Every structure is written in C-alpha cells, then in structure tokens.
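User: quick one, sequence for these tokens?
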C-alpha cells in the first residue's frame, strides 16, 4: 500500500515518503541480515554482519539525505555527507558476499575467477556504454565530485558481478 501510494503520489509529499520508505526498508534489511548473522557461525556469520552493516550504512546515508533535504530544506551539494553511507554499501555487501562463499576448492576457485572475469567484463562494458563514458566526458565541479560519480557505477558493477557468482556457486 505504501509503495503504491508513493508511486501514484505527486507534489511535495512524494519525496518525503520515498525518502522515509528507503530509510525504513534499508534498516529493516540490515536487521534481517543481523538475524541471519546471529543464526550463523564462522565465515557465514561475518558475511551476514558485513551485509547488515552495508544495509545500515545505506540507511545512515538516507537518514542524512532526508534530514538535510526534507527537514532542513538544504540544497545538497555533490558529494554530500550522505555519500559516505551510500558508498559504504557496495563495499560492505561485496565483502560480505565474498565471506559467505569462502572455503571452496581450488578448482572451484579457478572456475569462479574465470566466471568473475567474464561477468565483470560484460557488466563493465555495459556500464561503460550506458553510464561511464558520459560521466568521464562530463563537467564536474571538483575532482571529488567526478570520483564520486564514477565510484557508484564501478562499485555497482563489482557488486552485481559478485552477487551473480555467489548465486551461481550456491546452486
């Protein structure tokens, strides 16, 4: 009901609802991962905690964004404080997924590296064609803004690659 309302809503209330929805869902995802961590042991426990911290870092970034944009009415600079939380998400989740799949044989690891290279190159090419080329040619206010703009699609590509490999390995 809330998602349907957010999609059909217009006006000033829509961004408020979208921001709050993103904040609540990312915090809830972190709580779910924390619960999985408490039920796990060893590398799996560490992996789930890293994923939980990633979700919570996104929630922290969203909270900063929401407070600055909605409550204080500040026009957010780019990059902003919120980018610290948003940026930690792909790093924590990638490391968490890697920890969840540790302990494979050397043959399986070699296959995983080759598969990772194939998937990563494919996604990297798609990212370049659709996003990165325009960003590299873009006009940015500062080198930090340019680095932040490039950070998101690159880490998203790495995260999707690791997620695909994790799913493939657990089949």
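Assistant:
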């Amino acid at each position: 009901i809330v998602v349907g309302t957010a999609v059909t809503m217009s006006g000033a209330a829509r961004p408020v609802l979208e921001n709050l929805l993103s904040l609540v869902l990312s915090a809830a995802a972190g709580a779910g991962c924390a619960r999985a961590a408490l039920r796990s042991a060893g590398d799996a426990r560490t992996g789930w905690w890293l994923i939980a911290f990633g979700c919570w870092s996104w929630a922290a970034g969203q909270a900063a964004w929401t407070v600055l944009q909605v409550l204080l009415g500040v026009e957010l600079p780019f990059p902003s404080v919120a980018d610290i939380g948003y940026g930690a998400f792909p790093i924590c989740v990638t490391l968490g997924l890697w920890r969840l799949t540790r302990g494979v044989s050397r043959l399986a690891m070699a296959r995983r590296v080759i598969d990772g290279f194939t998937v990563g190159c494919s996604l990297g090419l798609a990212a370049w064609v659709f996003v990165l080329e325009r960003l590299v040619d873009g006009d940015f206010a500062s080198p930090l803004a340019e680095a932040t703009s490039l950070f998101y699609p690159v880490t998203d590509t790495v995260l999707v690659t690791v997620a695909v490999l994790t799913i493939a390995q657990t089949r």
